[in-house]
Design brief:
- This protein is of the alpha/beta class.
- Helix content is 41%, strand content 11%.
- The protein has 2 domains: 49 residues, Helicase, Ruva Protein, domain 3, CATH 1.10.8.420; 123 residues, Dna Topoisomerase Vi A Subunit, Chain: A, domain 2 (3-Layer(aba) Sandwich).
- It contains 7 helices and 7 strands, in the order αααβββαβαβαβαβ.
- α1 packs across α2.
- It is elongated and about 65 Å long.
Length: 201
């Protein structure tokens, strides 16, 4: 009879496969590594997971992750309040902040328009973006969605709906290869993309 894993290991493996990018084999390796680790190491990991869940929230202004609401970026008075850089996900802000590339404020959409996947404007933080533009007198939004078909479609949609607001709408330059993500770009590429941005019509 073939040997079977203890139910506790199977349960942990199944839970780990729910994480993005973790397949069954990787999940099993992680589960077995945790099994080999001392109890204190496992407890630190467990505590860190609970701490993130209990204390990290989404900023009600920009959509970034923080232990405070609004987040430190939104409350930083040294930043340019007249410019918003619009990104798809919080991970994009991390990439841009890593090299102090941008000194304005951000707005996380939470994805891109993808009609074939059932993602429409109502599923993104577009209403919140329009509210912020009106409420804070934003003069320019820089659309930094990824250079994918969905990212381009989203960029042009944002240009269209913000046109009546009479603000400048620009798009990051093509320093970022088509089909790639902001979070994987280096600091120099991101800097050139922002500095070389073009106006969206």
């Amino acid at each position: 009879m073939a040997a079977s894993l203890p139910p506790a290991v199977t349960d942990l493996t199944n839970e780990l496969t729910n994480l993005p990018g973790i397949g069954r084999k990787s999940a099993l390796r992680m589960a077995l590594q945790l099994l080999k680790s001392d109890r204190e190491t496992v407890k630190r990991l467990s505590d860190a997971i609970i701490n993130v869940k209990d204390n990290v929230k989404v900023c009600s202004e920009c959509g970034f992750l923080s232990e405070h609401d609004p987040c430190p970026i939104c409350t930083d008075v040294k930043r340019d309040m007249a410019v918003l850089l619009v990104v798809e996900q919080p991970s994009d802000i991390i990439a841009l902040e890593k090299g102090s590339i941008f000194r304005g404020r951000y707005h996380v959409l939470g994805g891109v328009l993808a009609p074939l996947d059932g993602v429409g404007p109502e599923d993104l933080r577009i209403d919140e973006l329009v509210r912020r533009i009106k409420e804070y007198g934003i003069e320019e939004i820089i659309v930094a969605t990824n250079p994918t078909p969905e990212g381009e479609q989203t960029a042009y949609y944002l240009a269209k709906i913000t046109k009546p607001l009479k603000i400048k709408v620009s798009r990051i330059a093509r320093g970022i290869p088509v089909g790639s993500d902001l979070e994987h770009a280096d600091d120099l590429t991101l800097t050139r993309a922002i500095e070389g941005r073009g106006i969206l019509d």
